[in-house]
Amino acid sequence: MEGLGAGLAALAFWGFIAAIVVAGIWYDARKRESHQETLRRMVESGNVDPELVDRILGSDENLGRDLRTAGWIVLGTAPGLALLGLILGMEFPDTRLPLLGVSALVLCVGIGLMVAARNADSESTPSDHRLPRM
Fold it and tell me: For residue 94, what is the DSSP state?
């Protein structure tokens, strides 16, 4: 019976993860649909305000800042993983090298996010995505 209980627990866990993912996708689709309906009504009425369109569509003004924030968070986890590998390596020597490798991978991801943030900052021009005034 122990094997059945563990299998059901694993199934429940992955079912919960799947439900969260599906709910997130459904929420985003409904939100996008709502935004499109709002824009459709604005265009039909002839009341197109570029600032309101930008606010509804969401602009990429904060993309660089968001990528930089994610980069700092990921960069902060790399030393923690390296320290975990060194500490666990004292008791379980086989874990040291894999955790140091994971730490290096996380460090590379963090550096990549910081480079992407710098590129997003240098390439962003706020007028590129705006609609012409009517």
Answer: G
The burial class, CB within 10 Å (0-12 / 13-18 / 19+), for 76 is exposed
Q: Are residues 86 and 102 in the same domain?
A: yes
Number of domains in the chain: 2
Q: Encode pLDDT of 93-134 as tens digits.
A: 999 999 999 999 999 999 999 999 999 888 765 544 444 444
pLDDT value for 133: 46
pTM over 0.70, yes/no: no
d(CA 108, CA 19): 31
Give a yes or no: residue 79 inside a domain. Answer: yes
Q: Are the CB atoms for 69 and 114 separated by under 8 Å?
A: no
pLDDT on residue 1: 53
Q: Domain range for residue 32?
A: 1-59
DSSP 60: S
Q: Position 72: which residue type? A: W
5 lies in some domain = yes
